[in-house]
């Protein structure tokens, strides 16, 4: 994949590119321009054409030759022009770029001075032609290497092709270093890199690096001895790494010394021996003296690309345990609901009252046997049933058979009425207990549902996403290097978490992630982690956003409005809008409204089902010792779909301003009037630029009729919800001749397209 932007424009990266270009020109004996493939790769990776041209020309100056410099200048001019056109047109370079690279090789074939290799039985022109083909074939390898170094190294594990490309690049650079600077400088550089990696990683993963570092030396000497030597140095150093950098450096140097002694070091001149030993001692000394924070930072760079499998397993295990525990608690609350909802046993009060009458009055009656034979108990049951229905009994309620047989009818009536008084008190207590059990059962069911939903959410395991590696690359294209990235969830619960530099732009983050995931995202949270680093969390962006308008006016002479409103964000995808009009006006009405809305807000925040919330709030308000009534307008809007769940309890009409004006009316009594609440519920589909208007009865009563209010709103063409609220309140005040006869509140919401 070819990049269109280059995130690393620092001096260090430019110098590395320059030195690599210089060394590549010395990889072969006749200084063939192997920096040309690197130039092409740099252009393909998005580095600025003028910067690439400057680096290529500077690298061509060292092996000075007028015709070689002329060849390079022509090549650079042509490629710079081509890629400047690409940048001007904001177009990515595709496979056609290789045609331009091929054309740019013609100056090398016809201008570059080359006497030819004597061992090759071809003319210099044909040799340069073959060499051009080799340069062209090397370009994809250098593109892969440079792309991996700039955009993937130290971020994630490199793929096998990318690793191979980097190895090829190093071998050619290493050959150039050997030919230009000699064995001692090559040894100094490679041993420094090897030792620094050894004391940082402290594991056997450095052995492949040791073999790679020694590969150019093996090619020049045409032997495998350097590979064995570098492996020996690595093994000796690893043995003493646990004892500190000093011990590791000493073991490294001693192993190097032994190898050089067996190689005839002391047969050479003292000066050469000094340079050979110095090529090992100097990098080891620098490695030992490096501050610990540098080693720690290097360790972070070398290790943080590894995939964090164990943390995800641990997180999943903890989530699963929490989910199972929550599910068990949910089941417990279901059992509590069942216990409170269990059917009551048959009321035995009638039987007990009859037994009381028989034991107190009939026990000493001389006609008792006669009444028992005549089945007077059945007549008593009928009399008791009438008494339970009426509350009291009198002479006209006595059954004829009981009147004809019983000599103490007045005593029966007196005793039964006394028991009926006790029964009424008992029945009232039973009703209150039954209502309390029903309330607790509903609450238990609501808590059970909440815990069950949380349990299911927590039980969902975090898995590895195939798109995470693509996200690393997409972020790199925006110039953002992330050392850890985590994608989980689906649909509305899609979440992307990443660690990025603290200065990273939220706009670039969302753009890079949207390009890979194909869904709209928004930056939900940015958590500082350490100096210069932050954790950014992105969620799926809702389709809509909302704007609100609120206008209020207190009753003439009043100090405090009895109307209360609420705007509550339930979660990232839903919000709650409510208007409560308490009975009367002033402080008491305000308390009623506040109390009602506080209860509603608390239950909705807890995400309880609506069929549990409304009866519960109504019962809690009805329990008040005073008569407290509230008219409620409430809607919960889903910002993904625009669906609004509207609840009206004793409130005046609401209005939906869409393509046409729609009236939303309810027919229920205010909350708190009756023990049972019967709200009017409806589902309204809102779309972009629709307005939903709630108002208290102080506003609606200002208009002569609903038709007048409908007519007034039909003429409105609002753009701003606050302006609509203000105009409606102002119109209501004008109709009151400027003197508000009741507390007045207008609450308006407009649905907008999310940006």
Short structural summary:
This protein has 755 residues and is an alpha+beta fold. The chain is 57% helix and 14% strand. The chain has five domains: 1-181, no CATH class; 183-303, no CATH class; 307-462, no CATH class; 468-539, Alpha-Beta Plaits (2-Layer Sandwich); 544-753, Phosphatase 2c, domain 1.
What does this structure look like?
A hairpin with a 3-residue loop joins strand 10 (654-657) and strand 11. Helix 7 (124-151) crosses helix 8 (160-181). Residues 1-9 have low confidence and may be disordered. Strands 5-14-13-10-11 form a 5-stranded antiparallel β-sheet. The chain has 5 domains: 1-181, no CATH class; 183-303, no CATH class; 307-462, no CATH class; 468-539, Alpha-Beta Plaits; 544-753, PPM-type phosphatase domain (Phosphatase 2c, domain 1), CATH 3.60.40. The radius of gyration is 44 Å and the shape is elongated. The protein is an alpha+beta fold.
SSE blueprint and pairings:
Elements: H1 11-24, H2 35-44, H3 49-61, H4 66-89, H5 97-104, H6 106-111, H7 124-151, H8 160-181, H9 183-201, H10 206-221, H11 225-240, H12 245-262, H13 270-289, H14 292-303, H15 309-341, H16 349-360, H17 368-373, H18 376-390, H19 400-405, H20 409-459, H21 468-477, E1 484-488, E2 495-501, H22 506-517, E3 521-530, E4 533-540, E5 544-553, E6 563-571, E7 574-582, H23 587-605, H24 610-622, E8 630-638, E9 643-649, E10 654-657, E11 661-664, E12 680-685, E13 691-695, H25 697-700, H26 706-714, H27 721-735, E14 744-753
Antiparallel strand pairs: 1-2, 2-4, 3-4, 5-14, 6-7, 7-8, 8-9, 9-12, 10-11, 10-13, 13-14
Helix pairs in contact: 1-2, 1-3, 1-8, 2-3, 2-7, 3-4, 7-8, 8-9, 8-10, 9-10, 9-11, 9-13, 9-14, 10-11, 11-12, 12-13, 15-20, 16-18, 20-24, 21-22, 23-24
């Amino acid at each position: 994949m070819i990049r269109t932007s280059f995130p690393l424009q620092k001096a260090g990266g430019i110098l590395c590119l320059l030195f690599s270009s210089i060394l590549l020109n010395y990889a072969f004996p006749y200084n063939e321009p192997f920096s040309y493939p690197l130039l092409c790769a740099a252009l393909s990776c998005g580095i600025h054409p003028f910067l690439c041209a400057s680096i290529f020309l500077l690298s061509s100056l060292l092996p000075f030759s007028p015709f070689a410099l002329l060849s390079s200048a022509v090549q650079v001019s042509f490629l710079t022009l081509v890629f400047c056109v690409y940048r001007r047109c904001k177009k990515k370079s595709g496979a056609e770029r290789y045609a331009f690279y091929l054309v740019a090789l013609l100056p090398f074939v016809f201008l570059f001075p080359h006497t030819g290799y004597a061992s090759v039985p071809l003319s210099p022109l044909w040799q340069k032609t073959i060499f051009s083909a080799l340069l062209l074939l090397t370009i994809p390898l250098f593109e892969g290497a440079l792309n991996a170094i700039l955009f993937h190294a130290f971020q994630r594990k490199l793929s096998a092709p990318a690793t191979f490309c980097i190895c090829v690049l190093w071998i050619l650079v290493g050959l150039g270093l050997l030919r230009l600077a000699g064995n001692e400088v090559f040894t100094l550089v490679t041993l420094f890199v090897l030792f620094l990696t050894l004391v940082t990683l402290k594991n056997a993963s450095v052995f492949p690096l040791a073999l790679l570092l020694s590969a150019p030396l093996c090619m020049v000497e045409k032997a495998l001895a350097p590979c064995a030597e570098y492996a020996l140095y690595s093994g000796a150093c690893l043995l003493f790494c646990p004892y500190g950098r000093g011990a590791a450096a000493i073991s490294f140097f001693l192993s190097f010394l032994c190898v050089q002694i067996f190689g005839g070091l002391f047969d050479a001149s003292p000066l050469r021996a000094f340079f050979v030993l110095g090529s090992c001692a100097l990098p080891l000394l620098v490695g030992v003296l490096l501050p610990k924070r540098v080693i720690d930072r290097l360790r972070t760079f070398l290790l943080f690309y590894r995939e964090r499998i164990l943390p995800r397993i641990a997180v999943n295990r903890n989530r699963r345990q929490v989910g199972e525990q929550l599910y068990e608690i949910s089941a417990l609350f279901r059992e509590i609901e069942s216990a409170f909802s269990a059917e009551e046993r048959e009321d035995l009060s009638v039987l007990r009252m009859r037994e009381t009458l028989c034991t107190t009055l009939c026990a000493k009656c001389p006609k008792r046997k006669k009444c028992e034979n005549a089945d007077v108990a059945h007549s008593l049951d009928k009399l008791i049933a009438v008494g339970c229905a009426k509350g009291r009994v009198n002479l006209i309620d006595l059954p004829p058979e009981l009147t004809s047989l019983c000599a103490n009818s007045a005593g029966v009536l007196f005793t039964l009425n006394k028991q009926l008084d006790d029964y009424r008190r008992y029945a009232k207590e039973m009703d209150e207990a039954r209502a309390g059990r029903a309330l607790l059962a509903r609450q238990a069911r609501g808590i059970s549902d909440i815990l069950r939903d949380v349990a299911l959410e927590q039980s969902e395991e975090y898995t590895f996403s195939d798109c995470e590696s693509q996200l690393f690359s997409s972020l790199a294209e925006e110039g953002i290097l992330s050392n850890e990235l985590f994608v989980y969830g689906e649909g509305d619960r899609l979440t992307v978490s990443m660690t990025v530099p603290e200065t990273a732009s939220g706009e670039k983050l969302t753009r890079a992630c949207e390009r890979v995931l194909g869904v709209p995202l928004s930056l939900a949270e940015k958590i500082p982690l350490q100096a210069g680093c932050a954790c950014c969390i992105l969620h799926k962006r809702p389709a809509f956003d909302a704007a609100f308008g609120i206008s209020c006016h207190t009753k003439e002479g009043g100090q405090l409005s009895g109307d209360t409103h609420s705007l509550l964000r339930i979660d990232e995808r839903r919000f709650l809008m409510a208007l409560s009009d308490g009975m009367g006006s002033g402080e008491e009405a305000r308390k009623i409204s506040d109390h009602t809305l506080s209860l509603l807000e608390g239950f909705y925040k807890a995400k309880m089902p609506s069929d549990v919330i409304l009866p519960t709030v109504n019962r809690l308000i009805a329990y008040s010792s005073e008569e407290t009534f509230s008219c409620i307008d409430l809607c919960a809007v889903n910002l993904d779909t625009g669906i609004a769940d509207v609840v009206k309890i004793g409130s005046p009409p609401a209005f939906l301003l869409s393509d046409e004006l729609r009236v939303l009316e309810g027919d229920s009594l205010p909350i708190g009037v009756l023990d049972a609440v019967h709200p009017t519920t409806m589902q309204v589909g809102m779309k972009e630029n629709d307005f939903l208007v709630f108002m208290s009865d102080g506003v609606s009563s200002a208009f002569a009729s609903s038709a007048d209010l409908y007519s007034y709103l039909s003429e409105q063409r609002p753009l701003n919800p606050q302006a609509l609220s203000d105009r409606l309140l102002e119109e209501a005040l004008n109709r009151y001749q400027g003197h508000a006869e009741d507390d007045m509140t207008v609450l308006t919401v407009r649905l907008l397209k999310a940006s």
